[in-house]
Structures are given as C-alpha cells and as structure tokens.
Amino acid sequence: MVDWIGLAIPFAYIGILVGSLSVFSSLYRKRKASKSASLAPWFGQHLQRDIYLTLLHQEPEAGSPKVSDGHLKAALLRRATEDIHRIVQIRNAKQALSTLLQRGSVGDDLWQRFQRAEKEIEEELRDVVSEANAFSPNWGQTIFQSASEMAQNAQIRTRITEIQGQASAEKEWWEKRKADISSGLMKELDEEKTTKPALASNPSSNSAKPAAAKIGSDDDAVLVDSPAGGPKGKNKKKGKH
Length: 241
Fold this sequence. Notes:
Translocation protein; transmembrane helix; mainly alpha; elongated; membrane
C-alpha cells in the first residue's frame, strides 16, 4: 500500500519552496521597478518635444488660425535635432560608463539610469519617424539627416562665436601690451636725455684724457733715449757739430 502521507510531505515542501521563491521574485521585481522609477532621469526636460506636442494638440481659439503644417514641421525638425544631440551624448558615455562599471567605480543605479535613457531615446526616435511619415511619406527616412546637418551648423556657429570672443580678448591684451612696451621705451629715452647733459657739464672727466696722453708721451721719450755710447748717441753728437 502506498504511503500517501509520506509522499505528501516532500510535495508540500516543494510547493512551499516554489511559492516562496515566486513571491520573493515578484516582490524583488516590484521593488526594483519602483527604485528605477524613483531614479533621476539621465537627461533633463525635452523642451522641443513638449513644444511640438503643444502645437500639435492645440485647439484653435475663436478668431485665431490653426497651427499650420509648416510650423509643425519646423517644430518636429527641432525636436529631431535635440534627439541628435542626445544620441551623441549616449554614444560617447556608453563605453566609458561600461568600463567604469566593470571596474566598480560606479554603482548599479547610474547604469540603470543610463539604460532607461537608452530605451527612452529609442522610443523617441520611433515616435519622430512616425510623426514625420504622417506629414509626408518617406520623410522619416531623411528627417534625422536634416537634423544632423542643423546640429552641425549650430555647433559651427557656436565655435565661431567662441573664437570671436577669444579674438577680442586677445586683441585687448595685445593693445595693453603694446602700450606697456611704448611707455617703457619712452621712459628709457627720457633717462638717456637726462644723462647726456650731465656728462657734458662735468669737464673733469674730459680733461683727464689729454693729461693722460701727455704723460704717456713723456714716458715714450724717456724710453727712446739711449746711452751716449750707443748708435743713437753718435747720431745726436753729429747733429750738434
């Protein structure tokens, strides 16, 4: 006869274990989802998307015209341009963030925020493509190319503005430097003009040179004189006779 009571105990144990594991897994997923939802977003508010949605769903008031398709397309293109900026930031940060995560330099919370930002940008791209195709067929395939060109032009204009600002600052510094150099040169010239009259008005320094020259000539005469028995002494006696 089969001992049902002995078989029921291990089955009951297995059932309790499976049930407790399922409850724990469910609670863990809910807790993780709530924690992920409470994390700060990776990007700030998407202002261009909010503007487009506001214009798209704006109800025309009495006497006011409806928002034209041209304005909506321009707003959608600006929205796509902002998406391009965010895609570039995501691509630049992904490799560095994954490396830091492997080293343990950053926590899982930051990685969860990044993954959520990736999912949000993917949904945003799909939404922009569908909205562009709603305006005109196949526009969704080229809208991001146009947005990329706009983003590059904006970046170039920003760089040109920065260079112009630096050029004005450097020009101001150079003008100040030239003024300092000119004042230094004028000061040296004034000092030279003041020292020259002082030398001209002091005759003692000028009279010292002839005296020294005269003394030198006497010394030369003494050195030239030779004894009477020398050949020069004979020539001197002949001259006397």
